[in-house]
């Protein structure tokens, strides 16, 4: 799935927070954007491994959400939403395509690395690959609640990310071909 799809998943949670407690809307929205993007910063290291923790982020979500409920503040809510978004990102990477240059060929057995299991999880391919038509459709639907709930900065980011997602999906195979040429 695209990094933007992961962000929109996190923003579903943030939108719910914003509806329940509008005072924390901005913190929740920004935390969802950062948490959804964060794992993919490892493209510069070992992608889908260095910053992807499908089990450990999820384990941290439990105390973080408990703390946010017990002592609600901008910081505790932001930490909980950040971890939720990062956990959803890491887990859902296993539902898409494999980690390979042309994931539509479906040859890689590696979706995301689980440090807890000490091995790569296999791609389920429910969503064909990042930037596939299904991924773009999913991203568009997931972005809708955030578009209605947020205004200002968060809404601007959502619109920008939708534009980037459409461009990426349209250019997805050309991007792979160019990357291949670069490697050669
Ligand atoms: Zn990822």
TrEMBL record:
Domain of life from the UniProt record: Archaea
Keyword tags: Hydrolase, Membrane, Transmembrane, Transmembrane helix
Gene Ontology MF annotations: hydrolase activity
Keyword Transmembrane helix in record: yes
Membrane-spanning residues: 55-85, 126-147, 153-171
Name recorded for this polypeptide: Metal-dependent hydrolase
Organism listed in the record: Natrialba swarupiae
